[in-house]
Amino acid sequence: MADQESRNLLGLLNGVAKYTYYGDNEVTNEFLKEELYPNISEDEFQKLLMKHTGLLKSIISADMDYNQLAAFLSSHTKKREGGITEEQAAVYSKFWKNHKVKIHDSVISQSTWNSTLKSVSWRIDLKTQARHIDQLHTPSAIVELQLTNGNGCDKKEADVVRFEMDEEKLTNMISSLEEIEKQISSHCQ
């Protein structure tokens, strides 16, 4: 019987993930109740659903690694009221192992509105044509940024931005990036 309960809980977690994070509109709470828990009342099912959805949201919002998950589940197995069993903790571990990356990517995708940097490429060229002779054969950096449009659509279009920098501009940009790195490092420690 415990094996069937574990399968039902795994099915419930998969169903919640499908309609909450993967956008599957065919899976509903009513469908999950009919398929997995037909013998319990609507109130009992709602309590069960709220409990496990809450635990799942806690795991997802913290983007727990496996050590954090183990500690989190261990603390919930020790609770007297509202806790979970060892078997249920094993189901959560199995579920998270199979869905962590996909759910993480889905949450990131759903929460990105602006364009994101997809790739950067650059090269150094020498100018072979110029208005003034002193500008010939000076090195310049040609930078290409590929941006993915993240406006909430499923279809992500890519924009390419190209620009050129001379040695002075490149030096200024590198020093600015180093300053940003120092600031980030100082706030992370």
Question: Explain this structure to me?
Answer:
The protein has a three-stranded antiparallel beta sheet. It folds into two domains: about 1-110, no CATH class; about 120-189, no CATH class. The mean pLDDT is about 85. The longest helix has 25 residues, at about 85-110. The chain has helices at about 1-20, 30-35, 40-60, 65-75, 85-110, 165-189, and strands at about 115-125, 140-150, 160-165. The chain is built from six helices and three strands; from the N terminus they run αααααβββα. The chain is of the alpha+beta class. Helix 4 packs across helix 5.
Helix and strand topology:
Elements: H1 2-20, H2 29-36, H3 42-61, H4 66-77, H5 86-110, E1 116-126, E2 139-148, E3 158-166, H6 167-188
Helix pairs in contact: 1-5, 4-5
Condensed summary:
This protein is of the alpha+beta class and 189 residues long.
For the structure shown, list the relevant keywords.
single chain, alpha+beta, 6 helices
What is the count of distinct domains?
A: 2
Low-confidence stretches: none
Q: Give the averaged pLDDT, no decimals.
A: 87
**Roughly how many Å apart are the termini?**
50 Å
Strand content: 15-25%
Count of individual beta strands: 3
Query: Structural class, from secondary structure content?
Result: alpha+beta
Main sheet summary = 3 strands, antiparallel
Residues in helices, as a percent range: 55-70%
H/E series: HHHHHEEEH
| Count of alpha/pi helices | 6
Q: What general form does the structure show?
A: elongated
Rounded radius of gyration (Å): 26 Å
Sequence of strands across the biggest β-sheet: 1-2-3
